[in-house]
Specification:
Blueprint (H helix, E strand, L loop, with lengths): L1 H21 L3 E5 L2 H11 L5 E4 L3 H5 L2 H7 L3 E2 L8 H8 L4 E4 L3 E3 L4 E5 L3 H7 L4 E7 L3 E2 L2 H19 L5 H5 L14 E5 L8 E6 L6
Parallel strand pairs: 1-10, 2-3, 2-4, 4-7, 5-8, 7-10
Antiparallel strand pairs: 5-6, 6-9
């Protein structure tokens, strides 16, 4: 069964990568977390300035540790007292690390955000964006991708941050207007105006939410 999943992921990744290319974005397939780490580092020259949103996928493949210990300028907002200053520095970074809450088979990305620093940096600001997206986030169409982003990723992240939202208690989206709502802004990335700005590393192993 595992071999069938691997084969399915390879074939589906080819379709997603072709969809990304048609949308002026660049896609890659990494079968393992280790492969994903190597691919990401190959895209980031030493000396680069890198910012990040709350990207568990980058952490789980070991990318943040590699950048912090390497010859890079990693904007570590968790260690900066002025969080706003860290976010503003990120908008002028060489690279921004993120994931997608969901992605369609033809390369449309869906992201929901509470503070909106992540979705705004994906849309504009950093010179390049590297998205690390596991294959379990790939959905057949925009409707199913939106349902995954709102109904799976958002409740999981709300629980991770300890937010008092209905979804953190029920496990499903209640379309709330809670002060803690994590769905303040929803970004649909269907095309990149600037070629070679957005790079998507598809990972065969599950990472992130």
């Amino acid at each position: 069964m595992q071999e069938m999943i691997i084969k399915r992921n390879r074939l589906l990744a080819e379709k997603v990568i072709a969809g990304l290319q048609s949308r002026n974005m660049t896609g890659y397939y990494a079968e393992t977390k280790e492969d994903a780490l190597k691919q990401a580092l190959s895209l980031i020259p030493e000396g680069s300035t890198i910012g990040m949103g709350g990207c568990m996928s980058a952490i789980e493949i070991g990318l943040t540790d590699a950048l912090k210990s390497g010859n890079y300028h990693f904007i570590d907002r968790d260690r900066m007292e002025d969080k706003r200053a860290a976010m503003l520095q990120t908008y002028d970074a060489d690279f921004f690390l993120t994931s997608a809450n969901a992605m369609t088979e033809d390369g449309v990305m869906i992201n929901v955000d509470g503070n909106s620093n992540r979705v705004s940096a994906i849309a504009q600001g950093p010179k390049k964006v590297i998205c690390i997206v596991s294959m379990n986030k790939i959905c057949p169409d925009p409707d199913s991708a939106m349902k995954r982003a709102r109904g799976v990723a958002a409740p999981t992240n709300a629980q991770r941050f300890g937010l008092a939202t209905p979804c953190s208690k029920t496990g499903s989206c209640m379309n709330c207007k809670s002060p803690d709502t994590i769905c303040c802004q929803i970004l649909i990335t269907r095309y990149s105006r600037h070629k070679d700005r957005i790079h998507v590393i598809l990972v065969g192993e599950p990472v992130g939410y």
